[in-house]
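Good day; I would like, with your permission, to put a structural problem before you. A protein sequence and the structure tokens that stand for its backbone fold form the material at issue. I would ask you to consider whether the tokens describe a fold that such a sequence might reasonably adopt. I set the record out below, with my sincere thanks for your time.
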Amino acid sequence: MNPEDLLQEGGSEEEKKKRSPLESLEVDLKFLSDSIKEIAVEIMVEGLSKYPIFIAHQHEVALGEVIFDRFEMNTDWTIQASTLEEFMERGVIKKELKQRFMDTYKNPNKFMCVFVIVPDGANFVFFPYAKD
């Protein structure tokens, strides 16, 4: 076995394209976990929202505020911070679905709420913070 196989490096461009972009997102979220948690707590403590939302993308997104730029951080994903309130103001979450979102929202001290945007669409993911 080659070292590239263990690291999943190398291989053809076709093989790289077959890999899910979510694999690299998981790596980035684990790497940034402590910092993202600090920001989520800050959003809640300052009374900005009880529902912090982080946006993960690889393109330009006009929602939230950039907290980790993928080019500056040398990661695959840019992470932006937002809130349920902004998602509602912008029409991403409709008013009639607010309660459903709040009921689905996991404990923000244990999970980050990530709105993942990929070319095929977007969806919410609740990703656990790294264990202390």
Remarks:
- Confidence is low (pLDDT under 50) at residues 1-17.
